[in-house]
Known about the structure:
The complex is a heterodimer of chains A (282) and B (355). Chain A has 282 residues and is mainly α. Chain A has helices at 6-33, 38-43, 54-63, 74-105, 111-121, 130-139, 146-150, 157-169, 172-180, 185-196, 198-213, 217-222, 231-239, 248-278. In chain A, helix 4 (74-105) packs across helix 8 (157-169). Chain A is globular, with a radius of gyration of 24 Å. The two termini of chain A are 30 Å apart. Chain B has two domains: 4-229, P-loop containing nucleotide triphosphate hydrolases (Rossmann fold), CATH 3.40.50.300; 237-342, CATH 2.40.50.140. Helix content of chain B is 24%, strand content 34%. Chain B is built from eight helices and 20 strands. In chain B, strands 6-7-8-3-9-10 form a six-stranded mixed β-sheet, with helices on both faces. The longest helix of chain B is centred in the middle third of the chain and has 18 residues, at 166-183.
Amino acid sequence: MVENRPISRYIAHGILIIGVVITFLPIWLAFVASTHPVDRLLNDQMPFWPGDQLLENYGTVLSEGMKKAGGVPVGTMMLNSLIMALAIAIGKIFISFLSAFAIVYFRFPFRRTIFWMIFITLMLPVEVRILPTFEIVANLGMLNSYGGLIIPLIASATATFLFRQFFLTVPDELLEAARIDGAGPMRFLKDILLPLSRTSIAALFVIQFIYGWNQFLWPLLVTTDQSLYTIVMGIRSMITVGDSEPTWHLIMATVILAMLPPVLVVMLMQRQFVKGLVETEK
Amino acid sequence: MAELKLEKVRKNYGQVTAIHQIDLQVKNGEFLVIVGPSGCGKSTLLRMVAGLEAISDGDIYINEKHVNEVEPKDRQIAMVFQNYALYPHMSVFNNMAYGLKIAGLNRSDIQKRVHEVSEILEIKSLLDRKPRQLSGGQRQRVAMGRAIVRNPTLFLFDEPLSNLDAKLRVQMRIEIKQLQRRLGITTLYVTHDQVEAMTLADRLLVMNAGIAEQIGTPLEIYEHPQTTFVAGFIGSPPMNLLQCVVNGPQIFLEKQALLGIPPSRNIEKPSVVLGIRPEHLVLDPQGPLNLTIDLVETLGADTLVYAHLGRQRIVARLPDHHKVSLGDQMRFTIPPERANFFDVDSGKKIAAKFS
């Protein structure tokens, strides 16, 4: 299948270019919209090239936010989102790593049962269990706090499952060699398992960071305090501001800003990804 | 330096018994090879000595110390695994130093020790590399280095050469033997390769289905196998085992009288298994054993002749070259002093009669 005729190269490139255009065009339009004054967006035909309001629009959102949407500066919301996404990603990795370690390397009663119980929760998305979870969080007095935003989302069956699968592929001899070398379980975890899992951790971090960043329903429920608003729910509340026209230029500026951290995370972690794919040997 | 003693050691996996009661004593500095077909329990036995596998029954002593409940790291052992089990993310130096670091040696001692050992094994130039940058033979050396650096009293090898190509295997075999001689460390070595077993061992333990069939020096085992299993396992090609009928003072194979029962043997049953090594069959135009040739393998120094008599298949090893074609008849004699007799039912050797 490895053909290298120019014709097939052009076709391959053509398809890729079409794909890029399709995915990139909306983002481009969002960026363009964020650089124009609002009346140009509402009255004229949608412009295709950036306007001259870039600094003003972004300055406005970052410092004051939108008055009509409560006036929370985008900076605050982004910080909240960042705290939430980081805590969820790191917490999930930490907890799942330890649970998978326990399930794979220790013999204890009901080990299989516990694994399957964790596994079953995979089937239930956040939305399904949102009411009971809300009840618990409310009773614990964690509404309107970072704890309330983060803790209910911090355990992950998916990550536990992925780590378990990865641990099962690590040859038993490594554990045995470590035992003979005198490493106890936690030492084995730290010195051998953790470095070997580096690439899976990187992959999970990317996935879970984006998952945390994009949370919408849960922050909407548990926060009423505007200083705890996250960016994704912030955007939503900007669009639905009573009966006045949405201020699209500011909304789009917020959208572009909201997109940056996940993009940054993917770009930075991608090196680890690729490196992990190349180093297949365990 | 260590003596190893196994007393009535057993291993059960649920209902299945993997090892039936093994007694073994390994002397200080001895090289003992455990050999047997796959699944015979030889690796399990080794892993029990290492402490990686629990002991169902019996006792293991290292240097008179009862070690059944002792953690692997406290048994003063070192093990070389079949797939080497090098830590993939650590450099060769760190692989070798890891155990010492955990043991709490200070950095300069670790440096010194690792360098000493890497000098012995000629892997000094590899110390900064990662395992994946090494060839099979180099990994093998590093795995041995990791074992030696710990200064163990007992070396355990679990089929360490089976992942190497044939030429390297021979070379490493010689090196392991020389190294063990030089360091004088008591060694337990598991293999399914009988050439490795014969060449390396001071003494051999032949295992089959969880039972120690025979323990002895390689020559003892080759010359005087105690059971038909050992006779059929050791030697390449293995010993011919012929189902013979006893009639009066004579032993018959497929109705041909082969040889008289040696007066020293106590053969009572009407049939007996006669064992004869391929190289002990003597070409003799007047011989009683009249074989039809099936296949001839010319090896250069000698010739292997595969033949049959009735339903019995027989291999003979003849020195030098021979012009033989398929379907030819050849006659052989069995020298009585070379013949081994085994009980038809138990497969055990029929001992000499003391008179």
